[in-house]
Amino acid sequence: MEYRAAAAGDADEIADLHAESWRLHYRGAYSDEFLDGDVFVERRKVWSQRLPDPPGGTSTMVAVTDSVIAGFVHTVFRSDPQWGALLDNLHVRADMKRRGIGRRLVVEAARSVITDDASRGMYLWVLEQNVAAQGFYRAQGGIDVERVLAGPFPGGGKAWAHRYAWTDASAVGVEA
Fold this sequence. Notes:
This protein is α+β, with helices and mostly antiparallel strands. The protein has 5 helices and 7 strands, in the order E-H-H-H-E-E-E-H-E-H-E-E.
């Protein structure tokens, strides 16, 4: 497995992985009409704008095996004055899960935060319905610090979400 910074040429593959992950994990929060409709087109638009000329203060890393993107993580530095950098997206192909890819991508995000964001804190939002993801983030040392009704999401809808946080990104991967 190779871990590297995402390039403009990765946009479509990242977008497809992102859309497929939403379809698998976000039903009930995002509308079925949106998930079954143009979610791939919508994600391709987002990623084709993000990657060719990434905005300052962000980092996108990919995990690649056999020339296929197995997962990616997108981090937005200095997103919140209290919590620090936002781990905005972390997705791993469904057939590649439980191989350490997600863990390594979270560690890569934490390294980028330590290098590029003076706050050193890191957080993310995970939908309450995504119990497996919550367990994963707890196993990486994340602490569930807040529960809010989030949304509206693309296509409408609201759902409960939990903020998982690390006050110091160097604690990522250390079980709580």
